[in-house]
Amino acid sequence: MLTMGAHSETVVPASVLAPDEHGLQAALDALARGGLVGMPTETVYGLAGDAYDPDAVARIFAAKGRPADNPLIVHLADPEELGRVAAQVTPLARRLAATFWPGPLTLVVEAAASVPTITRAGLDTVAVRLPDHPVAATLLERTPRPLAAPSANRSGRPSPTRAEHVATELGDAVALVLDGGPCPVGVESTVVDVRGTRPVVLREGSVTREQLGIEGTRQAGEDQRSPGTRYRHYAPAYPVVLVARGGMGAAVAALTPEERTSTGVVAGRSTVDALPPGVRVIAGYTDEVDLARGLYGALRSAEDAGVTRLLVEAVAERGVGRAVMDRLRRAAAPH
Ligand code: TXA
Ligand code: MG
């Protein structure tokens, strides 16, 4: 069964509002009542609720079908708030916040006792970030407390990168979705533990190891991962096959004529242009930055198109390409 198609038939889509004064006010009213809002960020859309209201946070877990042991990211309006959310702000945390915020870097710090247990899934740490998106920034400035916001997908689904993805997938679990357009980055933030003197990457994202100054170094606790990375991020109904760069022509040539009609392809533009007719091109990308932006949308489109398998051409593992390949390997893992 193609879950997306089945899902969108049964869920009445949530309303999508422009982020004008009317839309913002409606979102603020919903959040004040303990409700949830689809919030655009530069990475992916978040499912936002009051991080300090345990009932609102419980609604987030329920709406996503998220395991209770997978903690949420707390989103701030101002870097100064870090001192209130964290029990201890290390010099490293301070330096990375000053360098990368606002931006797609999530810092894992020792949690202040005031952060509700449910928000941090019982851990003594909390993940914090300050998003770089005008709509998220405005919303965060105008709410009295920080917002907890996981990616606004049901657990095990691709993260949403457009307002419609949230509206059709979550339906009335959200009061509304603010439409901030397509997310400019397209993959989730980099998560780093900053309790020590060197950052430990727990989840790859668009802020790279090079940017963090830890390229090529072995890190203590390197094998440590975010709780969320234990779960399959995306288990499509169709198998995803990763094809080496330059190998798509041969991969397509190896398909039987019957297979060819039901196989979807995501590949570089020049590769796509050279494919034989009849191949179901789902998306063509220019480079790893472009694929990062379009990847989750392409995975959804492939479902909607009813493909029986999806061939994806690998990108260079530089910059955000590393996070893209991380997500693709997870999607392609046998299940
Ligand atoms: O870009 C993003 O980070 C998006 C936008 C909406 O901000 N949010 C997002 O949240 O991707 P979510 O919940 O889908 O992923 C958060 C990741 C999970 O892998 C979770 O396990 C990890 O961060 N995480 C949260 N709190 C943590 C903690 N205290 N220690 C280690 N990992 C943590
Ligand atoms: Mg997520």
How does this model look, in words?
- With 335 residues, this protein is of the alpha/beta class.
- The chain folds into 2 domains: 3-225, Alpha-Beta Complex (DHBP synthase), CATH 3.90.870; 240-332, Rossmann fold.
- The chain is built from 13 helices and 15 strands.
- The protein has helices at 3-10, 21-32, 54-64, 82-85, 91-100, 134-142, 163-170, 209-212, 248-253, 257-262, 269-273, 288-304, 321-332, and strands spanning 16-17, 37-39, 46-50, 73-75, 86-88, 105-111, 125-129, 147-148, 176-178, 190-193, 200-203, 240-243, 263-268, 280-285, 309-313.
- The strands form 2 sheets. Strands 1, 2, 3, 4, 5, 6, 7, 8, 9, 10 and 11 form an 11-stranded mixed β-sheet that branches.
- β13 (263-268), α11 and β14 form a beta-alpha-beta unit.
- It is globular, with a radius of gyration of 20 Å.
- Residues 1-8 have low confidence and may be disordered.
- It binds threonylcarbamoyladenylate (TXA) and magnesium ion.
- Threonylcarbamoyladenylate binds next to β6, β7 and β11.
**CATH structural class of the largest domain:** Alpha Beta
Q: Domains counted in the coordinates: how many?
A: 2
Bound ions, cofactors and other small molecules, one mention each: threonylcarbamoyladenylate, magnesium ion
Low-confidence regions: 1-8
> How many β-strand runs?
15
Structural class: alpha/beta
Full CATH superfamily name of the largest domain = DHBP synthase
Report mean pLDDT, rounded to a whole number: 93
Helix content: 25-40%
- How large is the count of helical segments? 13
Secondary-structure element order, N to C: HEHEEHEHEHEEHEHEEEHEHHEHEHEH
CATH fold name of the largest domain, please? DHBP synthase
CATH-derived architecture of the largest domain: Alpha-Beta Complex
Shape: globular
Radius of gyration: 20 Å
Largest sheet: 11 strands, mixed
Strand portion? 15-25%
Cα end-to-end separation: 15 Å
